[in-house]
Design goal:
The radius of gyration is 32 Å and the shape is rod-shaped. About 15% of the residues lie in helices and about 45% in strands. The protein is mainly β. The strands form six sheets. It has a six-stranded mixed sheet with strand order 5-14-13-8-9-10, with no helix packed on it. Strands 16-23-22-18-19 form a five-stranded mixed sheet, with no helix packed on it. The N and C termini lie far apart (about 125 Å). It holds the Pfam family Ig_3. InterPro entries: Ig-like_dom, Ig-like_dom_sf, Ig-like_fold, Ig_sub, Ig_sub2, Ig_V-set, Zig-8. This is Ig-like domain-containing protein.
């Protein structure tokens, strides 16, 4: 017969499921004590996007781990990257963020590269082992100019071009993004005057707004936004001297139609000449 002490050590286990991860949560004894096996507090995003050259943080919150260990593994090659607070890779870009005494065991990747994209698993060495997968997507650093690729403005009005870059410059400054008009850098101190630039840091990166007041016909041409850490973007600006772009486009279509009809007539005439001979 079991002693009172032995009975006291008998534990009743119940299993419940949280966010698709099996959690062995009910651990109780005769004295009413209750322990809880580790589980993931599934409040962090399972899909993370980062930009080449930036920092990526894959979050993992592990509850009630006790004396167990939290590790991060790269799924594509099954390489253990970190275990507890230690790093087990020669790539110094990888590290674990674990501010004591929190339950957070976040994987930090500095200077993200395209090859870093893929699935990573946060693991707890229970028996059986439990894990939580996080997908990392890596985007190219690139600029985007808002609106159409062709911008039409009336002579004397203001040319307004806004360029967004999906990376941050710290701190944001006019030097972080250059604007070109054709092959020349836009000169804000030129005798022409009326040219200004506003650069600011946004949640998604950096935004640069170019303003050219009192647009002249010579302000037409190709404008390019060139960040110092991303691919550039360009638009074509057309300064119109009283002509509406819709009318200009209609005129172009009419011209193309007349050219097509004339070509057809010439071809028909030549063909009939050959047949008659």
């Amino acid at each position: 017969m079991a002693t009172f002490k032995e009975n006291h050590e008998i534990l009743a286990l119940t299993t419940e499921w949280r966010s698709g991860v099996g959690v062995l949560s009910g651990v109780s004894g005769l004295d009413g004590s209750r322990l809880e096996r580790p589980y993931f507090d599934d409040v962090s995003p399972r899909n993370v996007s980062s930009v080449v050259g930036q920092v990526a943080v894959l979050r993992c919150r592990a509850k009630h781990i006790g004396n167990r260990t939290v590790s991060w593994m790269r799924k594509r090659d099954l390489h253990i990257l970190t275990s507890h607070i230690f790093t087990y890779t020669g790539d110094a870009r990888f590290s674990v963020l674990h501010p004591e005494p929190s339950d957070d065991w976040d994987l930090k990747i500095d200077y993200v590269q395209p090859r870093d994209a893929g699935v990573y698993e946060c693991q707890i060495n229970t028996e059986p082992k439990i894990n939580m997968a996080v997908m990392l997507t890596v985007e190219a650093a690139a600029a985007t100019i808002w609106g159409s690729q062709d911008v039409y403005v009336k002579k004397g009005s203001t040319i307004s071009l806004t360029c967004s870059v999906n990376v941050h410059s710290s701190p944001p400054s006019t030097a972080s993004i250059l604007w070109y008009h054709g092959n020349s850098v836009v000169d804000f101190d030129s005798p022409r005057g009326g040219i200004s630039l506003e650069t600011e840091k946004t949640e998604g990166g950096t935004t640069s707004k170019l303003l050219v007041t009192k647009a002249a016909l010579t302000d037409s041409g190709n404008y390019t936004c060139v960040p110092n850490n991303a691919h550039p973007a360009s638009v074509s600006v057309h300064v119109l001297n009283g002509e509406h772009p819709a009318a200009m486009q209609t005129s172009n279509r009419a011209s193309s139609y007349l050219t097509s009809q004339l070509s057809c007539a010439i071809f028909t005439y030549l063909l009939s000449s050959v047949v008659c001979r």
